[in-house]
Structures are given as structure tokens and as C-alpha cells.
Amino acid sequence: MSKEGEHHHWRGRWAWPHSWEEAEGFLKRIAMEVREEPLPWAPHWLVGVDVAYGVTRAFAGVAAYDLEKASVAASWVVPGVPPWPYRPGFFFLREAPLVLAALKGLPKRSVVVLHGHGRAHPLRAGLASVVGVLLELPTIGCAGSLLCGEATEPGAAAGSWSPIWWEKRRVGAWVRTKAGVKPVVVSVGHGIRLQEAVHLVSTASVYRLPQPLREADRLARQVMRSCGG
DNA sequence: GCGACAG
DNA sequence: ATCTTGTCGC
Fold first, then answer.
1. Protein A159 CA to nucleic acid B5 C1', in Å?
2. Is residue A27 part of a domain?
3. What residues form DSSP beta bridges with A205?
4. Which of A17, A21, A24, A183 has minimal CB crowding within 10 Å?
5. Is the CB of A53 under 7 A from strand C?
6. In total, how many domains does chain A have?
């Protein structure tokens, strides 16, 4: 990845943060731009993105899952360099630059699902919201655990879910994607309704995480290992 | 002050 | 997250 975001069309409108302090202001502005609204069309693709990290390089895996055929139709990997260390609440600083570069040229009617949070974030704007707002794409956050908020345990059956509350707002859903397995945290990233996000994640799941995310993760790791980290 | 804390 | 294959249990 070269100088973060330099070549993207959103340069100018959004100055990429260069400190933790700037990152906080950046997220607050992203949060104000997030729209929680119905998708403008019936989605055809659920595109999963995940990044695997080696010693010096990182690899973003992307998997386009055809919702009708219930299978991954295309996948690719984009190499880069992780510019920031991980810090809870600022995961986007580490992951977003490479993810943004990897999501070029998606087909129409694509919804992107990211391995992290959207509105279920202390500032109500996690990685999925950053990517959604900057690329003006519908995005969903899907994470393995809560960063903030509270929820009651959903029922044991696959598909059941309960709302997640944070500062008196409903910021996400705790979703049982597989019977008897720990629920995942689903939240709106941008341009979609929580209900639709929950439905898409549930529909695309066989195991705990939705298929496009599993495939993106598997592919990114595979390529990373074949490239020697 | 201490613990918790997406990946 | 990552080091790491098979194995134990429902």
C-alpha cells in the first residue's frame, strides 16, 4: 500500500488520519455520515473481505458470494503493508487501507461484509462504517465478540438473534448463525438496515461465520503462506 | 485505579 | 490475530 488512500476518489473530502487523536475525530465524522436505510435493490452478491498478516506484509482476501447460487463465484487477493498496529476501537487504521484497495470494481448489487464492527462501536463507526462511507457501498460488520454494548443471549436455534444496546441505541444484533454455537455480532456498516444485514449474514452462513468471510480468510491465509509471510 | 478491549 | 495436527467428545 502506498501513502494511504492517495489515489482514491474520496481524497480531499476525507483526510486520512495520521495520529490516534485524528483517528477519533475521523470516526466521529464517519459516524455522522452513516445511513441506516433499506438497500435500493435486491442484493445479488455478498462480498466478504478479510486480511491476513505476515511479518512484513499483509494480504487482503476478497470472496464474492452469489446469494442465489449460494456459492463463491470469484475471489482474489491483494498484497499490501499494514501501516498501524492494532488497537481496540481503531482497527480501521490497520485494516481499512488495504481493504479499500482490494474492493475495486465490484459488480452491481454488491453488499460487503467485513470481519469487524460497524455501528456496534464506542463511537458508532467501526471498520465496516469507514469502508461503507468512503466507498459509498452498503456494508455489514460481522465480528466474533462485543467491543461495547449489551445484549441478551439469542435462542439456541440458527437464525435467532437479539438486539445489542449501547448508550440507549440499538447498534447491532447478536446472531446465532449456527445452532448451539456462540453468536456473532452483526451491525450496520453503511447503507443497509440491521434487519437486512442480519438476514443476509444468516442466509450466507453454514458455520459460525458467513461463507464469504470464511472464504476470504482462507484464501488470504493460503496466499500469505505460499508467499512465505 | 483496574479491567476490558473488533483483528 | 498468530505459533499448530490430530484428536477427544457430543
1. 27
2. no
3. A210
4. A21
5. yes
6. 1
Q: Is residue A189 part of a domain?
A: yes
Q: What is the pLDDT of residues A209-220, one digit of tens each?
A: 999 999 999 999
Nearest to A118 by CA among A96, A86, A87: A96
Q: Which of residues 143 to 172 on A have a Cβ less than 7 angstroms from any strand C atom?
A: 144
* CA of A194, C1' of B5: distance in angstroms: 24
CATH number, domain with residue A106: 3.30.2170.10
First to last CA, chain A: 16
Residue A8 has what pLDDT?
Answer: 63
- How far apart CA A80 and CA A101 sit, in angstroms, is 9
**Hits for CB < 7 Å against strand C across A residues 195-214:** none
Domain that holds residue A163: 39-146+153-226
Task: Give a yes or no: residue A76 inside a domain.
Answer: yes
| Domain-located, residue A103 | yes
Tens digits of per-residue pLDDT, A37-66? 999 999 999 999 999 999 889 999 999 999
What are A152's three cell numbers?
441478551
